[in-house]
Amino acid sequence: MTTRLYTHPIYLEHITPPGHPERPDRLKAIARVLENDGFGALDRREAPRADVSAVRLAHPSDYVERIEGAVPEAGIVRIDADTSMSPKSFEAALTAVGAAMAAVDDVYSGVAGNVFAAVRPPGHHAERDTAMGFCLFNNAAIAARHAQKAHGAEKVAIVDWDVHHGNGTQDIFWSDPSVLYASTHQMPLYPGTGAVSETGVGNIVNAPLPPGSGGELFREAFNSRVLPAIDRFQPDLIVISAGFDAHQRDPLAEINLVEDDFDWATGQLMERAGRFADGRLVSLLEGGYDLQGLAFSVAAHVGRMMKG
Q1: How far apart are CA 297 and CA 45, in angstroms?
Q2: Contact at 8 Å (CB) between 285 and 117?
Q3: For a Cys-Cys bond, which of 60, 151, 213, 232 suits 209, CB 3.0-4.6 Å?
Q4: CB-based contacts of 294, cutoff 8 Å, min separation 6
Q5: CA angle at residue 197 from 144 to 180, to 5 degrees?
Q6: Other beta carbons within 10 Å of 39
Q7: According to DSSP H, which parts of 43-166 are helical?
Q8: Does residue 125 have an active-site annotation?
Q9: What predicted TM-score, i.e. pTM, was given to this entire model?
Q10: Do strands 156-160 and 204-209 pair parallel, antiparallel, or not at all (unpaired)?
Q11: Other beta carbons within 10 Å of 191
Q12: d(CA 203, CA 283)
């Protein structure tokens, strides 16, 4: 099984304010760790830029136009207290969408067994018509819609293990039984959504974790809620919103996972992808703000994907 990696230099040109946790150094740290000898077989590709029309798979036209119209000629403009744009941010966001869509194409065509996309800006907080939480466009949601539109996917599962709940993905698919959204996340924590009682039309499965949780509670949440939901749903494709800010080193939350926890969760989802989806699994980078914790966790995640 070939594992493909998508990234692009444009992601480094999405500039955030000084001291902002979602910074270009994140992708530099990932690039360094994936240069190690163990990743020699990784099929490395430059991410394509999506057409603006592709964003409309998950966001309305007026929202897309509003984001494009907010791009500054110089400097940084704030969309909200956490989310900002620089002159290249819109192009970076379109290239993040392009990576997500290309990853879906690859696993459906069979040129790759699974794909990891190291992208910026992240996407899972972007609601249908609201940018927030460092996110402009919802990469995972667009990937799911693209799989349905271009490849006839009937059921797509999005599994989100970022430490922050993916309110945007939940918002977009709240009433859509063709997409399962399953999330583990710290609660209480930004953005304040993700309670067990939030179930959509039965397609939303939240497994909140209290502050201080470690690998044992994380795995229990997977085993008791996330994995049974996938087994019932039997998806044609699994998309991971792969945030690594639940790592014990991360400064933005209080969950204490280690690299082996991400390795284990990756293996569990690969097993389900093999059982239900001919192995089709796409992983999209979301959060992760301690550079060492992020790099080592991505190495464990991608290393597990490469084992097939």
Answers
A1: 21
A2: yes
A3: 213
A4: 26, 29, 30, 244, 247, 288
A5: 15
A6: 16
A7: 52-55, 61-69, 89-109, 139-151
A8: yes
A9: 0.98
A10: unpaired
A11: 16
A12: 20
Classify strands 281-285 and 114-117 as parallel, antiparallel or unpaired. Answer: parallel
Q: Is the peptide bond before 121 cis (omega within 30 degrees of 0)?
A: yes
CA dist 35 → 29, 112, 182, 305 (Å): 10, 20, 32, 16
CA atoms within 13 A on the CB side of 225: 25
Read off the tokens for 149: 């539109």
Q: How many residues does the chain have?
A: 308
Q: Give Cβ neighbours of residue 44 (< 8 Å, ≥ 6 apart).
A: 4, 5, 7
* Residue among 240, 151, 243 nearest 190 (CA): 243
For helices 61-69 and 89-109, the axis angle rounded to 10 degrees is 140
- Taking alpha carbons only, the member of 282, 301, 294, 305 closest to residue 142 is 282
- What is each CA distance from 186 to 134, 137, 189, 211, 290, in whole angstroms? 18, 23, 6, 6, 17
Which amino acid is present at 257? L
Q: What is the pLDDT of residues 237-280, one digit of tens each?
A: 999 999 999 999 999 999 999 999 999 999 999 999 999 999 99
Amino acid at the residue 119: V
Residue 13 DSSP one-character state: G
pLDDT tens by residue, 150-171: 999 999 999 999 999 999 999 9
At 181, the amino acid letter reads Y
Measure the CA–CA gap between 70 and 242, rounded to whole angstroms: 28
pLDDT given at position 14 = 98
Per the rule left: phi > 0, alpha: psi between -120 and 50, beta: everything else, 288 is: left
Q: Which two tokens stand for residue 79?
A: 């969309």
Q: Two tokens at 171?
A: 């918002």
At 181-208, the pLDDT tens digits run: 999 999 999 999 999 999 999 999 999 9
